[in-house]
Amino acid sequence: MTIDLSVQNVTKRFEEFIAVDNVSFEVPEGNFFSILGPSGCGKTTLLRMIAGFTEPSSGAIEIRKENMVGRPPNKRPVNLIFQHLALFPMMTVGQNIAFGLQRRGEKKEAVKTKVQAILERVGLPGFGNKNIDQLSGGQQQRVAIARSLVMDPTVLLLDEPLGALDLKLREQMKVELKKLQAQVGTTFVYITHDQSEALVMSDHVAVMNAGRFEQIDTPQNLYSDPQTAFVAQFVGENNAWSGRVVQTVDDVVQIEVEAGQTFRVRPRQAVSQGSQIGLFLRPEAVLIQPDPGLSELNRFEVIVKAILFDGANSRLLVNPLQSDREILIALPQNRQYDHIRVDDRIEVGWDIESGICFNSGS
Fold first, then answer.
1. Is the pLDDT of residue 139 over 90?
2. Which of 87, 96, 287, 338, CA to CA, is 20 to 30 A from 108?
């Protein structure tokens, strides 16, 4: 397996502030790798170090086993696409794409052939003579990608490139980018604060927090098996409680969360009697009016406070009895629960395998 990008123990300090703190990861050839994290976590600084616009304070960056530290951006086999695409409005699509090749001194016929070929690859055949302002936002996105790919980079770096698009176009472009990357086979390193973008498009995702990687994993594992409380909170929706372990029987712990309410959980990580716990539960893990025959459930009654209609993502907002805590419950897309109304009192439950808990501070 060829490793296109290797980042080893990279740190970036700005005087006393550590923006990137001892980060290491590898990206295999042809992989779509995303770095997901909140604003200010260090992801753009990390991308700029890979691109060569910022030098690391320490650590190594290699592309195809060649050391990149100290090498200027124009000498690195990477291209960087920003949120604002920086297309030249006075040039045609073809001229935009040809610009880098011409600067590199390639012959006119070779440039023409490469521009036509890359337009085919990004699904814009025949668009070479169009003006930039004649294109939709999604088409402009493809031109920016084509302009980078025509230079044949080993790694294409993308800095929140969908952030300026409207919601519907962003949803479309997530699918388009995924398909395009699979088609062209170039290694993509993509940074975003949008978990949906990272989960939908990526082969692997690194979740970044305060300059460090909390977890690198497949999108499926990040969602179903988070390794830290931050990942559990940041990736997908979660109901969260703080509590204390009051009893352990075999591999099941009993956690007291509030007002004497307790839940039973089979933890995936070791927890000890009396320890403070953060407990997380996905909205889709909560069953509405569960079958009485299901024995290993945490059952309790709630009051429906709101029905949040959002098509396939519709949910109930509920409060447990004698509690102001708000709990989100995914509403299955069938008509089984159409009878539920605001202020109804209903029973809900969740399986002891569904809760994810961490020692406080994890």
1. no
2. 87
What are the tokens at 228? Answer: 């830290």
Residue 36 within any structural domain of the chain: yes
CA atoms of 277 and 197, how far apart (whole Å): 30
Q: Which residues partner with 160 through β-bridges?
A: none
Q: How many domains does the chain have?
A: 2
Nearest-CA neighbor of 213 among 32, 37, 14? 37
180: DSSP letter: H
Contact 234, 43 (CB under 8 A): no
Give the tens place of pLDDT for each residue, 38-80.
999 999 999 999 999 999 999 999 999 999 988 999 899 999 8
For residue 10 the two structure tokens come to: 């990279």
Q: Is residue 92 part of a domain?
A: yes
Assess contact for 81 and 161: CB atoms under 8 A: yes
Report the distance separating Cα 264 and Cα 118, nearest Å. 56
Per-residue CA distances from 76 to 148, 245, 332 (Å):
13, 53, 50
The whole-number pLDDT of residue 163 equals 76
For residue 292, the enclosing domain spans 239-359
pLDDT (tens digit, 9 = 90+) per residue, 222-258?
A: 999 999 999 999 999 999 999 999 988 888 999 999 8
